[in-house]
């Protein structure tokens, strides 16, 4: 039933457009790309843990409420790829 419901639901290109905006932002970025925030980085070694990789990461399924956590690099904070054509 769920598959049929989604198959028949009205479609939108909103996510497709946002994804294209992200790709354009990365493609047109001048200089080195912004780094992945430390709290989102995997820390498979002790050195990486000591450098702060993964520190403060909130694993969504462990919380009953939505998690307030930043996922974009600092240079891209506040950019809304659903509304903005380019960053």
Automatic annotation (TrEMBL):
Signal peptide: none annotated. One of its GO terms (cellular component) is nucleus. The lineage of its organism: Eukaryota, Metazoa, Chordata, Craniata, Vertebrata. GO terms for molecular function: DNA binding; enzyme activator activity; single-stranded DNA helicase activity. It comes from the Eukaryota. GO terms for biological process: DNA synthesis involved in DNA repair; DNA-templated DNA replication. Residues 1-84 form the MgsA AAA+ ATPase C-terminal domain. It holds the Pfam family MgsA_C. Gene3D superfamilies: DNA polymerase III clamp loader subunits, C-terminal domain (1.10.3710.10). Transmembrane segments: none annotated. InterPro entries: AAA_ATPase_RarA/MGS1/WRNIP1 (IPR051314), DNA_pol3_clamp-load_cplx_C (IPR008921), MgsA_C (IPR021886). This is ATPase WRNIP1-like protein.
